[in-house]
Each structure stands twice: as structure tokens, then as C-alpha cells.
Amino acid sequence: MTLPTFTMVAAAPTPVAPFSHAAEADGWVFLTGQMPTDPDDDSKPLPEGVQAQTRRVMDNLILVLEGVGLSLDNVVSVRIFLTEFKRDYAAMNDVYKSYFEPKPLPARTCIGVTGLARDALVEIDFVAKR
After folding, report:
1. Of 1, 13, 26, 55, which residue is 20 to 30 A from 91 by alpha carbon distance?
2. In angstroms, how far is CA 52 from the centroid of its own chain?
3. Domain boundaries, the chain
4. 8 A C-beta contact, residue 80 and residue 111
């Protein structure tokens, strides 16, 4: 096994905590959960509503994927965290699936949580394979 590499992607949003955007070991790439923050201005308010926040999170994840030379085609597994699970699950799914269809969807877990950084409604992380 090679030692892991840790990557910060210049085009990706400023981290909301101390972490790398991605960590890679033996071709497996673990993307840190992204928030719906603006990649150009971390001080901007978060988008309104779970659909807009899901789009921003997915777009932020794509920035990280591209920063490590990957795309959505490399994504194997996804974890989604929602603060308002019952209210937002269907709306989040509508946006989420639009990023992957018509291709087969990655494995996925979706979890209801009591809170997220920056009072976000959604956070998503990826595991990808090079």
C-alpha cells in the first residue's frame, strides 16, 4: 500500500473546518463532505432551500473531482446528510439524480442529522475510484 496523498483544490470552496478536500490511497479517492458554500466567496449566504443547496453541493463536489482529475463517472459511493429529512428527501433526490442519470447510480446512504456546519440543509461526500 502506498502512503495516502491529501489534496486541497484551489477552485473548491474554502473548508468550513480543518480538512483536505480529498484523500487518496491505492486509487481510492475520498472526498470530504461539501457544504453549499460559494466557491468564490465563502462569506456569501447559503442558497435558499434544499434544491438550490443540493445543486451547490454537487457543483462543489464536481470542482473537487475535477481538481484531482476525476469526474462523476468515477464515483462509487455517496453519503448524504439532511437536517430536515422528511421535508427535504424527495426534493433533494430530484436534484441529486439529475447529476447521474441516465447512467447507473452509485451506491448511496442518506442520513437525517440534527445539524450541519453553517446551518446548511444538506451535506454530501463521495468515494471515487481512479
Report:
1. 13
2. 14
3. 5-12+19-129
4. yes
Give the per-residue pLDDT at 107: 98
The mean pLDDT of 30-43, rounded to a whole number, is: 96
CB 24 within 8 A of CB 69: no
Say which residues have a Cβ less than 8 Å from residue 34's Cβ, sequence separation at least 6.
12, 13, 57, 60, 61, 64, 123, 124, 125
Measure CA 113 to chain center: 16
- CATH level 2 (architecture), domain 5-12+19-129: 2-Layer Sandwich (3.30)
Question: For 55-80, what is the mean pLDDT?
Answer: 98
Q: Is 48 exposed, middle or buried (0-12, 13-18, 19+ CB in 10 A)?
A: exposed
